[in-house]
Specification:
four-stranded parallel β-sheet, 9% strand, globular
């Protein structure tokens, strides 16, 4: 007879809702911010704002595979793995603080707060992150743990109370924008120099030195002067890394924002794996994704500013679209400005901000730009744009991701039939199955190397004499 075991955890009062108390200004000095932003470089550079603003902070580091298990244990069932990674990361941190620092759950709730992303997600995950963060905290015994959610909107509604200790102010959002641009530039450098480096360990050491060089300059109160010099020196350092001259296949990766940009266990260290397997991955430029978010919302909401029923409503949507345009222009300006000093061309960096209107025009016959969700028409447009520019094209997303798996991948079958030479692979991340997923990537890399060898043989064939 089979014995039935009781579940490890039984949720009580599950429909009672969750509270998220205000972090008041008077408690600023006694509270530590726990945070991690996609991957380590974005977390590193956002530290500069927290330090200059006088906050206590603790970087939780890159998301780890074990975070998925914490997220699954304490979170809701059948969620996509970014929620498991992000909620699992911070609940693991709370439990480790309780175990290692001797604090009670009540003291942890009083002395810590979590800053994370996910307040403005696609349809299948809308509102999921904030709810799950509060749920796992409550269920793990940290009732009333406070959460700060960063989303892509510059206009917070409702506006934060005047008594709030932390506000998503213009200065914070400006610093956040600069942080991910700086992280992008260093990521571009890593993808460009590491595949060709004669000594990869020495190259990684140089990359870390450049990270710290830029971090110290950005932390300086006069970073307007120190940052350009630091970027210039960092670019020169990367260009000086000894490298081999070899023709490696180019691999482009796109897909859901977390699975694409995590660059760690959350996407099986995909780009590092590609580098180790003898190929060059194109960098994941988060600045491009941020611009797309502005473009997508502006395209979607612009008709609201024209056809609103009241003047007040029309004024609101017009202002909202103007803010999105300003955010887009600011991101593009800062990226180009910082790259002017960094000069990625000197080490053959391949990070670029593509024309979003051009991409939209490419995908328009196959994917309507008004369809809201995920990376939307960008995945389709990128497949068309890169079909003759790269040797491998990978789209990566969480398991069961509705916009990417259910919509974009369906349209991709049409694109592949149009461009049969497109070496296409779609993979779904789940936090496990690493061997299975990377074996499929290895097959794509094998085909990519065959394409490179075929090109080289064609070039080496001598033309017949006249």
């Amino acid at each position: 007879m089979t014995s039935i075991k009781a579940p490890k955890f039984v949720r009580e009062n599950q429909w009672a809702g969750h509270s998220n108390p205000l972090w008041r200004r008077r408690d600023k000095k006694k509270v530590t911010i726990l945070y991690n932003m996609f991957e380590r470089r974005k977390s590193l550079f956002i530290r500069t704002y927290l330090e200059k603003a006088g906050y206590k902070y603790r970087d939780l580091g890159d998301h780890k595979t074990e975070d998925v298990h914490y997220g699954r244990e304490w979170g809701s069932r059948m969620m996509c793995n970014p929620v498991y990674f992000t909620s699992g990361s911070f609940i693991r941190a709370l439990l480790e603080i309780e175990k290692n620092e001797g604090l009670t759950k009540e003291q942890i709730v009083d002395q810590f707060i979590f800053l994370g992303g996910g307040g403005d997600c696609t349809p299948c995950r809308y509102g999921m992150y904030a709810e799950e963060y509060m749920r796992v905290a409550d269920d793990a015994g940290f009732k009333g743990f406070r959460i700060l959610i960063l989303n892509s909107d510059l206009l917070p509604y409702p506006p934060p109370p005047k008594d709030a200790a932390f506000k998503f102010s213009t200065m914070f959002l400006f610093s956040f924008c600069m942080s991910f641009i700086l992280a992008d530039l260093m990521h571009i450098g890593e993808c460009a120099v590491l595949p060709y480096a004669t000594d990869k360990d020495a190259a990684i050491k140089t990359l870390n030195e450049c990270d710290n060089l830029i971090f110290k300059a950005f932390r300086n109160p006069f970073f307007y002067f120190t940052l350009p010099a630091a970027l210039f020196r960092a670019g020169r350092k990367l260009a000086a890394i000894p490298g081999e001259k070899k023709n490696l296949p180019l691999i482009f990766i796109t897909g859901e924002v977390f699975a694409n940009y995590a660059n760690g266990d959350a996407n099986y260290n995909l780009r590092r794996f590609i580098i180790d397997e003898g190929a060059e991955p194109l960098p994941a430029v988060f600045s491009h994704r941020a611009r797309y978010e502005c473009w997508r919302k502006k395209t979607y909401f612009y008709p609201y500013s024209k056809y609103s029923e009241t003047k007040k409503e029309r004024k609101f949507w017009k202002k909202y679209c103007n803010v999105l345009a300003a955010q887009d222009n600011t991101t593009r300006f800062l990226f180009n400005l910082f790259d002017f000093f960094f000069n990625q061309k000197q080490f053959s960096g391949k990070g670029e901000l593509l024309d979003l209107d051009m991409l939209s025009a490419l995908s328009e016959p196959y994917y309507d730009k008004a369809i809201n969700g995920g990376e939307g028409n960008m995945e389709i447009a990128e497949a068309i744009y890169y079909h003759d520019k790269v040797d491998g094209f990978i789209t990566v997303k969480p398991f069961g991701c509705m916009p990417s798996s259910g919509v974009s991948d369906g349209v991709q079958s049409k694109i592949i039939s149009m461009y049969p030479d497109l070496n296409f692979l779609s993979i779904e991340t789940s936090g496990d199955n690493e061997v299975s997923i990377l074996s499929r990537v290895s097959m794509l890399l094998f085909k990519a190397k065959q394409k490179v060898r075929a090109r080289e043989s064609q070039v080496n064939v001598k033309a017949p004499s006249p």
